[in-house]
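A note from the maintainers: we've had questions about how concatenated examples are separated. There is no special marker in the raw files; a new sequence line simply starts the next protein. For clarity in this README we add a label.
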Amino acid sequence: MAKLMQTILLGYGVEVDDSPYGLMFWIIRSEENMKCNDIAVLIDIVESLYYVLYARVVIELANIELCSLAEDENAQRRAHSLAFLLPSAEHLYRIVFAFKIVMDSREICAMLQKEIIEKYQRRYIKSATEIVNKKGEALFDRFGYRRYVLSILLNKEGKYYQKWSSLIPCFDTIAPGVIVLLSDKYRTVDQVIVLPDDIPYDELPFVERNQLGPISWTDEKLKDDRDASLAKLNHICIGEQRRRRSSFESYWLTKEHKCICLSTCRCCDECTANTARHCPCAERHVRLMTSTRLPNHNKAGFVARVNTVARMSFYGLSFLKRDVPDQAIMEQLEAGFDMFEVLISKERCEPVRPTLRTTSRV
């Protein structure tokens, strides 16, 4: 989950603190000690990573919610773009809030130590304030965002202020201008920082249609049309129809840019209506399957594979339809956890155990 949060923060261009009280510091330390067998060291890393992540998640939820209260001037672009765009603040809030739900689970932490969370929050706020003051950023207020959110922050009797001042003990110590600048990051549409993938795009095992002979292509077209017809008769999408077959066949289908997505994905309706369409999620599925099936492909290290799984998992969450129930977000998140679990178990050369299943969520 920390890697997912890191991916989100970097994508939106939000500062990721690498001090001993920062999220990046503990992510790097956990990666460096992935093969460590010292229980004391592992407990210290997992516990520290949990609390620094929890503290950061709560603060970012406040920033994201503040951003979501303003009108999204990029709503049309997000809705109609064929390329991946960062989700709106409203949808992102649901994703990050799902992180908090998982972390609040007694399976993860039986007794939450709020004073530790407050310590990390104060450290981050101090660091963020210093960065803002040092950069001296002036927010370009073309759409009136600064004026609008400042009016919300200055209303101490309002719902927003009352809610977050109760959840973040040091909330009233944050300068309104700092919160404005931090929340403004979540208006970003195009990714700011993307960590390198384990496999370059050109080396992904895609099968292009021009590689198929005319007879094979015709057979594939007939099969695709049949799947689409069956899907419509069963009131499901083509991806769900294809998933009724073996998972190995799904791997080959997505290598041909074919849709294997569930009905909760934004692409499913168009992919069902147009079987010749290249599914925009094909790269995500291929990368996830390749990263977990071929851990040593192209000599990519553990960190690169985890970065890829984190980014693709975030893409999956981002491509969910905006009206999906919260359970759909949790299921997509669980699927990402399962991928991390596989990578960790392979890196440690261990079978998946209940303790590993729990810690892989942090």
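[label: protein 2]
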Amino acid sequence: SVRDKMATAASAVLAESGVSGEDSFCTFYATVSARAYIGCALSTPHTRSISVCVQHRQRLAAACTEGWPAVRAAFLEISAHDEPRLLGMHGVKFRSPAAVAQGLDEAFERFAGRRAELAERQARRLARAHLSKEELETLRRARHRLRCTRRFARAADRAEGTLRVVEAGRRRLEQRLAEEEHRRRKATAQKQLQADRRRSVERWRWHRRRDLTMEDILRGPPRKGGAAGGGE
């Protein structure tokens, strides 16, 4: 059998390496996919016998084809296998059957939603296998229209996002231009106010001159750039 052949091969390799017996050299374990039930693989217990490891794997692999109750029962059965660990080796300690069962049940419940999706997908796949060519073509066209609709919807979302970015940039530009125009008008008004204040001060100083005559007063202060009148 395969188990005996692997045990013989392992013994031969250990003998070539100068190690007497597989029980004093290393441990073995196997993994079996249980993704259809819990979404991950199950690992068999570590054992020093490759024959026992192969037996565990065959037992668990056969149970995976029979359904979850068989997988659960088989894993609980092989998890009860316990051997003393090698000196200096560190590994997972032996867990009680109750703890193993609780871990399996929790993993099975967590994967319930995904398991339903996989079952629905498998049902659709099996249903398509019995459709005629015309029905398959109709289904293909419907799926193509759905993909195109989703693609156009994504393109529309991207276009709307681009328009929002452009509109936001335009508003920022308008706001910046408005702020610059406001600052320019404020600066112009400030300059005009300063000029009016200077002219007011100049008029006040001109009216307080002691050398003004009645003719100068009637004529008024000189305009900017003109010469001030004085008495003779």
